[in-house]
Amino acid sequence: QVQLVESGGGLVQAGGSLRLSCSSSRSAFREHAVGWFRQAPGKEREFVSSISRSGSDTDYADSVKGRFTITRDKGKNTVYLQLNSLKPEDTAVYYCASRRTILTAPPTRQYDNWGQGTQVTVSS
Fold this sequence. Notes:
Elements lengths: L4 E3 L2 E4 L4 E6 L8 E8 L6 E6 L6 E3 L7 E6 L4 E6 L8 E9 L12 E2 L3 E6 L1
Parallel strand pairs: 2-11
Antiparallel strand pairs: 1-3, 3-8, 4-5, 4-9, 5-6, 7-8, 9-10, 9-11
């Protein structure tokens, strides 16, 4: 099992930026596709973004396209989610998730390994 640790959440004003990190101490993490999801109070968890195992392909929810960017640094065994132009409706707990895939697999929205989440709060 690859344990995932999220960090980087916090309180920011509307229009501000944050960078979330998802890391693992296991080298096997490099063989995983990684995604970010979020869950706001009273709402279902929703897909935000994903990146393929190779790092060459990404996927975004329409609500965050052009504002959020997902990248991965294999040397640091970390996936980042850069959140720009934040809006109050982006407030949620953000979860990192992973799934072992083949090298050429495209980004996926299906995961079986989850982190504990990090809170992002955007004030108006």
